[in-house]
Amino acid sequence: MSQPPSGQGKGQGGSGSGQRTSTSGSTPAVRTSTGTGIPRTATNGAVPVARSPTGEQPAIRRSPTLSGLPNVRAGVNAFELASTQDSKSYKKRLDQSAFDGEGEHTQVDALLGARRQPAAPPTEENSAAAGKTFDGTTPPPEVISRDVWKAIHAPLQSRQGRRSPDLYKQVINQFAAGHNPRYESADPKQLRAHIFVWDVTRAMNAEIPHFVGPRELTLVQTCDWLRHEGTMRGWRRADVESAAAAANEGKPVVAVPRDSSVRAMGMVRPGGLGQDGRPRFAAAGLQRGNDLGTKEAFGVMALEYFVHD
């Protein structure tokens, strides 16, 4: 009688196989090869379970809690410390200058785990400026810093919901554009019209920034920011009539030449129109002054107007 080939037969017990075939058609069992100690993969793709030579499944060894391991805990502590330091440095930069939006402060506070106290009801002016009237020619000491890369904190400020034409006029007057050494420039190519607008809009809590991240904006770049980014930051375009009306409601209004190659910008003042039928302006360009006509402030007549509600 002929013998069945190796690895076949009733038991499939040949030394070269390591598997048994179930006669009922169910999933075949997996057995550790005696040659290598590596379990063979079941034909149905199931992950095999390694067993000891006696056929018993070894006991499962449970590792300690991951966060309890000294080296892991040390790494987590170091990461949290670095994150906190970076966040604090970023918040400090926001407080000093640049475009410090409320949303950015909120994100930093959340990262630091700090809870902000409910803001006090906004006031039109702080105690230092209460009762003062600014004439537009004598700037207070707080606004005369020649370090134009530093943000200044004006004594008189205005906020959304508490606007008025008189307050807006006084906010502009305190910077004394025509007499403030902060806006003097010996180089006609380095005009500081954008520094004046930065200061006024900060005091109006509708900042047109002088810094975007680490980048310090030039006058031309500030005009471009207003045209492109400003419309997503609360500034909207307006025609001359709407701009004059908004200024007379105490809202900050900024004008720039329609020709983007002309380097100039200024604040629309509340009050009546000038002899040219246009608003009056406060600006620190080729001519610096607190009450200028269109041609004096910009050198051109065609302007674009932007209002912050």
Quickly list its features.
alpha+beta; endopeptidase fold (from Nostoc punctiforme); six-stranded antiparallel β-sheet; two-stranded antiparallel sheet
Secondary structure elements and their pairing?
Elements: H1 70-96, H2 102-112, H3 165-173, H4 193-203, E1 211-212, E2 215-216, H5 219-228, E3 235-238, H6 240-247, E4 253-257, E5 266-268, E6 281-284, E7 288-292, H7 294-298, E8 303-308
Mean pLDDT: 75
Please give the oligomerization state of what you see. Answer: single chain
Helix content estimate? 25-40%
H-E string: HHHHEEHEHEEEEHE
| Overall geometric form | globular
CATH superfamily of one domain: endopeptidase domain like (from Nostoc punctiforme)
Structural class: alpha+beta
Number of helices: 7
Q: What is the CATH domain class of one domain? A: Alpha Beta
Question: What is the end-to-end distance?
Answer: 104 Å
Would you report the number of β strands? 8
Q: Examine the secondary-structure arrangement and name the CATH architecture of one domain.
A: Alpha-Beta Complex
Can you tell me about this structure?
This protein is an alpha+beta fold. Among the domains are: 74-112; 141-308, endopeptidase domain like (from Nostoc punctiforme) (endopeptidase fold (from Nostoc punctiforme)). It contains seven helices and eight strands. It has a six-stranded antiparallel beta sheet. Strands 1-2 form a two-stranded antiparallel ribbon. The protein starts with 69 loop residues before the first helix and ends with a strand.
